[in-house]
Design a protein that fits this description.
Blueprint lengths: L6 E6 L5 H10 L6 E3 L2 E6 L1 H10 L5 E10 L3 H10 L12 E6 L9 H15 L14 E8 L2 E7 L21 H10 L8 E3 L6 H11 L19 H9 L11 E5 L2 H14 L5 E5 L14 E4 L10 H18 L4 E6 L2 H5 L12 E3 L2 E7 L5
Parallel strand pairs: 5-6, 8-9, 8-11, 9-10, 11-12
Antiparallel strand pairs: 1-3, 1-4, 2-3, 4-7, 6-7, 12-14, 13-14
Helix pairs in contact: 1-5, 2-7, 3-4, 5-6
């Protein structure tokens, strides 16, 4: 694959948040992004792959489609996989992991058998080892989708999930992933021009993500990517892209997080320091009843309270949600609210005037929803 020939790039989204990811891709200048189940697709070049990994806050991973062919049985898959131009993208010295998804619409419906054929083709034709336990080198993952007898090959250009920004070491129970937080902030209309407050901040994800957006920091600025281990990696293009990163913006805004758990507050403070936004974040140890409206402009309160599904007793949570709603209604006039929960009854216990609900969102094995309000009266 040449560096300037366009091909399909697929951005994986947390299910239920394809719309804000499509909005983000369009705002970042990617050509004609289109929303599809599970993510966002657009045509681009390898430079766009680099840029998507570096700049997009909401994508879970960035996949590059490297080719496809028809196959109606395993022998045909084996023969055509051996002729596939693996060496244009994969290196013989980097371990490869193959992941196959198929369905009953295809004559090849046994994913394990298909995986074995493709692994053998890569090993025998290219010479690259198949990833195994205890590998010293980080593998590159080839993802194969067999649909209606067409085998579609993509390479995962991200490596570790893009929620791993490279600065969040400390996490608590049921942590919110950075990619999920970024898309929920966008879904609440946040664009870096207002303060954000999280009264149950945990390890600080919402607050730190908001501060990074306000400062204009690229989420991928401090971590490596799988595309750096591909045969067609252009180090000069990558270095030029990183050299063009905009200088951090000055911001007068302060973003606030509090938690009744002193350990969580300490974690959040450390994470903000590692992210380079500690001067924009204020974390404090406080109970919900002690929550005070910060001085300055109105903004967004966003909170991911316990749901009862995993942490704590659900019956006790009705009082927690009720107290949260009362504090917000009495002290946060003019602020908008975003609340994440898997339980509509708990959300209603706040008494807040929520807008119509969007799609369910997959989070940690649960289906949650983002409950949003307009500015509170």
């Amino acid at each position: 694959m040449t560096s300037d020939a366009p091909f399909e790039i697929f951005l994986i989204a947390p299910p239920g948040l394809e719309t804000p990811l499509c909005q983000e891709a369009r705002a970042a200048g990617f050509a004609n992004p289109r929303q599809v189940p599970g993510g966002v697709a657009f045509e681009g070049t390898w430079q766009d792959v680099y840029r998507a990994n570096l700049y997009l806050r909401g994508a879970t991973r960035v996949l590059a489609r490297i080719g496809s062919f028809r196959a109606f049985h395993l022998a045909q898959l084996d023969k055509r996989a051996r002729k596939f131009p693996w060496g244009e993208v994969l290196r013989p010295d980097v371990p490869v992991r193959v992941e196959v998804v198929t369905n009953r619409k295809s004559k090849i419906y046994h994913a394990g058998a298909a995986t074995q054929r493709i692994e053998t083709a890569i090993t025998e034709e290219l010479g690259a080892p198949i990833a195994g336990e205890g590998d010293q080198a980080e593998p590159v993952t080839v993802k194969v989708r067999i649909d209606d007898n067409t085998c579609i090959f993509s390479v995962d250009t991200s490596g570790e999930g893009l929620h791993k920004r490279g600065h969040k070491v400390a996490v608590g129970k049921a942590p919110m992933r950075e990619t999920l937080a970024a898309l929920m902030l966008r879904a609440c209309g946040y664009d870096g021009q207002e303060p954000v407050l999280d009264p149950m901040c945990g390890s600080g994800t919402f607050v730190i993500e908001a501060a990074e957006i306000a400062r204009g920091l690229a989420p991928g600025r401090g971590r490596p990517f799988a595309f750096e281990r591909l045969a067609n990696f252009d180090a000069d293009v990558w270095q030029a892209l990183k050299a063009q990163l905009p200088a951090p913006r000055h911001s007068e805004l302060r973003h606030h997080g509090s938690d009744r758990n002193a350990g969580a507050v300490e974690m959040a403070t450390q994470n903000a320091e590692r992210a380079g936004v500690s001067d924009l974040c204020r974390f404090g140890h406080a109970a919900m009843s002690d929550l005070e409206r910060p001085e300055g402009p109105t903004g967004l309160v966003i909170v991911n309270p316990p749901y009862g599904a995993r942490i704590g007793n659900k019956k006790q949570l009705y009082a927690v949600y009720g107290a949260l709603g009362e504090v917000l209604k009495t002290r946060f006039s003019g602020w908008r609210v975003g609340l994440v929960t898997s339980d509509t009854q708990l959300a209603r216990a706040t008494g807040l005037p929520f807008l119509p609900l969007g799609a369910p969102i997959a989070h940690g094995g649960l289906k949650v929803r983002l409950f949003r309000t307009d500015p509170l009266p």
